[in-house]
User: Which sequence fits this backbone?
């Protein structure tokens, strides 16, 4: 397949979201710094969070460009290794946490980050998301081609990789939010690979049963679910304050820099709760716009899948779609009180480097893949008229000759 | 087949986004006001801007001096969750602050989940400054003002005190609480989660505090102080435990001293045996002042033209009214029986004389009648202001003058009233009435407030003129003479100096015990005036002294107190002797 111009809407939407996130961090970063200083007696400068986020955004754009530039044919070979790196890092983190090393960064009994000095911290789960996505896409595509997609040739390695990843994320790191995103990636890729629906339903059922088991066996999760339905506890405070922020925004918002909820009332104002602060700042119109940007971005990603030239490319795009859609929805639905809090970031908008960078890498790959899609017209016309197709090919030939 | 599955995924996206948008619409558009109300309740911080309580001044001659002042003190509050133990030990739990601390170090550290705890009170400005410089974490200072009394207990029962809640109690602090306390202001701001005011939004409201007025009293601190000393000395000398005294200028009703003993320390007002010691008896404790009221009775007769000092009557030593035998206190002295003048009746305090006067007022020499009772009531109440609040700027009791017509035994009641029993009046009422008897006949509302200090300058209140004419000028002149004569007749010890015109009247009251007048429990009263011979009196002094369960005679106990005060006033007011 010949390379053509990529889908620039993907780039535009990605940049728009990154930019919107920057504005919000610029406005509320000083409040966050002030709050942390006053509460914990720190000495964080006013621009600390904005400058960091600016660096994160720049690095993420660089990552996007790199993922776009490196030919997918080359990159696909690294997929397995990214997954293995993710598993190794997760296992390492587990060990570090067990021995109480300072390299393991833990919050409220959950060790999800590896400290890497002045660069901040690294979240192995992000490697797992990207690695598992690439690995499953390749595996499913090749098994599909071999015709063994419904056989253990596919199910065994896919199952092992998925279960190991989920084990580390959900059981070890106690990160149900990221677990849900991983499951979305797994289910999305498998679903789109064309497995028998019967088998897919079995997988879905198994995951649901396992999910209930995971919640019931963990007192911390039972508590979270309970407080969500009872309306008390720290999570309730968090959700209530997120909804106060969103509600006060009204139709048009209170304006940039006028958020009061971000001055310390709303926990995680710059990270997980950034959607709520955006609601207070920009109102219903602003949030509507943000959600619509996500919708446009995701439809374009899905379009890459629809027009993909090969199964692997198609599954890559579907995985990215599932990833971003579920992460966005879970975050936003938690902020609006629709589902319990899980503690995941809003893709591209929340403060923080690792999460943002992996999402832009995924989008960078998608953008690259959009350069190798079939033409939409081609797809439709192929069904109806061969003569048109011939004509089209002629045109294309003449165009390429002109180049 | 695969396209269908992709479409399904897209539909899932649209469904999720649809749910989200509907939810956002509900929260942001439909429920907006509810969330705004919740936000306001959470964000708005309302602080009171404390008005400064006004200070109280007395006069020192012609200069106002502060008697009740404010001092800035601090309360130390800690946040047990964030404090540093070492720092606390070094800065707060020190020997320097041990008198102020109200908790132990261990009380702070035993439960560190708390966020607010008061650890010390009444910390001085210097100590607070040291703490501020050390700036320990989780410690803050709350400033507040405290009353201080540079003159100690001087005038305690006149001034009152301020309680823990900042409310004025008793005395000037109580009655002028509104003026002294001013009006608190308010600061309403949007604050962050640590209660630091934010500049976000324009709903911030600031109403500045109106500080209380600095009240300047007519009371002269030297007179107040010396009258207190004289009273205390005499109480000790006589073995009496209760005494009150009042000094006023009869020419305008200004109160120069108002003393009640025993006193108390207003800075430590809680350490008293009972609330009785807070009461300003001069204005709030009605009693029967006895024979000093003969002055009012005779003045009424003179003013009506039915008698004068030389009018004679027959003194039988007692009279029977309504079946009651009403005797003179000099009942046993046969030398006083027979035809006597009104002046004699005043000098010897003959109750038969004042009862005669009441008959004369009624126009029937043989018996007391309704006209006499009504007229006496009118003079007592409407002319001399007895049984009425005088209008002084202090809490007052009203007392009681019984109705001249309604009720049984009015004749005997009014017979008793002619010599100051069977009625309830306060010292300030009697003194103000007496002032009108001797100052030319005009009644002035007694007043304790001279004016206000505004930035160090005394702004005097406009002087109120006389309220009414109590008696004719000639009546007043005759009363001065009679009072001078009475005092002259009793002046056994040669205590009044030459060149001064000094008069007065004793009153020894029987006290009602178990519903009857007791024969062995008396209260002594003396009211008198003084000044340069040939001029209008410059001061009026009223003294009341007693001890529960004892006979305290006025001539023996109250008059000597007056004598000392009178002599002191002549010196202090630099009154030159006249011809």
Assistant:
């Amino acid at each position: 397949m010949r390379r053509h111009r990529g889908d620039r809407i993907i780039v535009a939407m990605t940049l728009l979201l990154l930019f919107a996130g920057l504005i919000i961090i610029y406005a509320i970063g000083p409040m966050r710094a002030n709050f942390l200083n006053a509460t914990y007696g720190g000495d964080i400068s006013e621009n600390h969070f904005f400058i960091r986020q600016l660096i994160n955004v720049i690095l993420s754009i660089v990552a996007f460009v790199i993922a776009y530039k490196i030919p997918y044919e080359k990159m696909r070979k690294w997929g397995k290794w990214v997954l293995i790196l993710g598993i190794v890092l997760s296992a390492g983190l587990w060990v570090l946490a067990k021995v109480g090393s300072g390299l393991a960064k833990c919050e409220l009994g959950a060790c999800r980050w590896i400290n890497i000095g002045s660069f901040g911290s690294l979240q192995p789960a992000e490697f797992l998301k990207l690695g598992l996505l690439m690995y499953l896409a390749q595996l499913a595509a090749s098994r599909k081609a071999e015709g063994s997609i419904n056989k253990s040739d596919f199910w065994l390695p896919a199952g092992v990789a998925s279960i190991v990843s989920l084990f580390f994320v959900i059981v070890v790191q106690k990160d149900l939010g990221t677990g849900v995103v991983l499951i979305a990636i797994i289910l999305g890729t498998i679903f789109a690979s064309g497995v028998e629906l019967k088998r897919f339903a079995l997988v879905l059922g198994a995951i649901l049963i396992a999910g209930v088991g995971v919640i019931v066996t963990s007192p911390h999760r039972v508590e979270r679910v309970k407080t969500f339905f009872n309306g008390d506890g720290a999570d309730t405070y968090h959700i209530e304050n997120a909804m106060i922020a969103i509600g006060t925004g009204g139709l048009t918002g209170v304006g940039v820099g006028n958020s009061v909820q971000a001055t310390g009332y709303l926990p995680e104002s710059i990270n997980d709760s950034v959607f709520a602060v955006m609601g207070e700042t920009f109102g219903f119109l602003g949030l509507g716009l943000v959600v619509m940007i996500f919708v446009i971005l995701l439809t374009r990603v899905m379009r890459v899948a629809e027009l993909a030239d090969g199964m692997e490319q198609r599954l890559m795009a579907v995985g990215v779609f599932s990833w971003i859609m579920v992460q966005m929805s879970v975050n936003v639905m938690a902020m609006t009180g629709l589902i319990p809090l899980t503690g995941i970031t809003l893709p591209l908008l929340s403060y923080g480097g690792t999460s943002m960078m992996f999402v832009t890498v995924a989008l960078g790959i998608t953008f690259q893949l959009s350069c190798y899609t079939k033409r939409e017209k081609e797809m439709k016309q192929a069904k109806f008229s061969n003569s048109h197709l011939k004509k089209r090919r002629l045109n294309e030939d003449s165009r390429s000759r002109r180049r | 087949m695969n396209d269908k599955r992709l479409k399904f995924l897209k539909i899932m996206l649209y469904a999720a986004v649809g749910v989200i948008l509907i939810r956002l619409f509900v929260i942001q558009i439909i429920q907006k006001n509810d969330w705004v109300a919740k936000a306001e309740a959470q964000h708005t911080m309302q602080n009171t801007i404390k008005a400064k309580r006004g200070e109280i001044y007395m006069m020192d001659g012609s200069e106002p001096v502060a008697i009740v002042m404010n001092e800035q003190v601090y309360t130390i509050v800690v946040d047990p969750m964030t404090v540093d133990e070492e720092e606390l030990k070094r800065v707060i739990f020190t020997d320097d602050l041990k008198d102020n601390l109200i908790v132990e170090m261990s009380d702070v550290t035993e439960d560190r989940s708390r966020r607010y705890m008061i650890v010390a009170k009444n910390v001085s400005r210097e100590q607070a400054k040291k703490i501020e410089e050390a700036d320990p974490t989780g410690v803050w200072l709350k400033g507040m003002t405290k009353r201080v009394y540079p003159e100690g207990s001087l005038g305690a029962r006149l001034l009152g005190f301020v309680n823990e809640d900042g409310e004025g109690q008793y005395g000037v602090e109580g009655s002028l609480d509104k003026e002294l306390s001013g009006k608190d202001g308010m600061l309403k701001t949007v604050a962050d989660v640590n209660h630091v005011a934010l500049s976000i939004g324009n709903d911030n409201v600031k109403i500045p505090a109106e500080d209380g007025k600095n009240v300047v009293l007519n009371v002269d601190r030297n007179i107040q102080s010396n009258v207190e000393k004289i009273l205390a000395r005499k109480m000790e000398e006589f073995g009496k435990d209760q005494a009150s005294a009042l000094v006023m200028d009869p020419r305008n009703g200004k109160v120069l001293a108002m003393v009640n003993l025993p006193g108390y320390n207003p800075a430590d007002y809680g350490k008293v045996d009972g609330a009785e010691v807070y009461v300003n008896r001069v204005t709030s404790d009605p009693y029967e002042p006895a024979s000093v009221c003969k002055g009012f009775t005779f003045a009424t007769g003179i003013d009506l033209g039915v008698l004068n000092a030389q009018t004679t009557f027959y003194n039988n030593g007692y009279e029977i009214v309504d079946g009651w035998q009403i005797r003179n206190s000099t009942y046993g002295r046969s030398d006083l029986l027979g035809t006597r003048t009104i002046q004699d009746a005043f000098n010897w305090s003959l109750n038969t004389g004042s009862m005669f006067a009441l008959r004369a007022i009624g126009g029937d020499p043989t018996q007391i009648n309704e006209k006499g009772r009504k007229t006496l009531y009118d003079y007592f109440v409407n002319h001399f202001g007895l049984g009425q609040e005088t209008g002084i700027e202090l809490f007052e009791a009203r007392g009681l003058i019984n109705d001249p017509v309604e009720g049984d035994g009015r004749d005997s009641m009014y017979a008793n009233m002619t010599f100051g029993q069977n009625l309830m009046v306060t010292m300030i009422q009697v003194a103000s009435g007496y002032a009108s008897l001797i100052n030319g006949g005009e009644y002035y509302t007694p007043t304790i407030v001279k004016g206000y200090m505004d930035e160090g300058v005394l702004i005097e209140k406009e002087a109120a003129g006389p309220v009414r004419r109590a008696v004719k000028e000639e009546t007043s002149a005759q009363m001065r003479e009679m009072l001078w004569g009475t005092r002259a007749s009793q002046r056994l010890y040669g205590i009044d100096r030459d060149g001064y015109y000094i008069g007065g009247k004793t009153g020894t009251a029987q006290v009602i015990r178990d519903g009857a007048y007791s024969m062995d429990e008396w209260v002594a009263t003396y009211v008198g005036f003084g000044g340069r011979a040939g001029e209008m009196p410059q001061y009026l002094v009223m003294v009341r002294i007693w001890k529960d369960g004892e006979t305290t005679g006025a001539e023996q106990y109250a008059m000597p107190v007056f004598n000392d005060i009178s002599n002191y006033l002549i010196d202090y007011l630099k009154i030159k002797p006249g011809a």
Summary: Residues 83 and 137 of chain B are 6 Å apart (CA to CA).
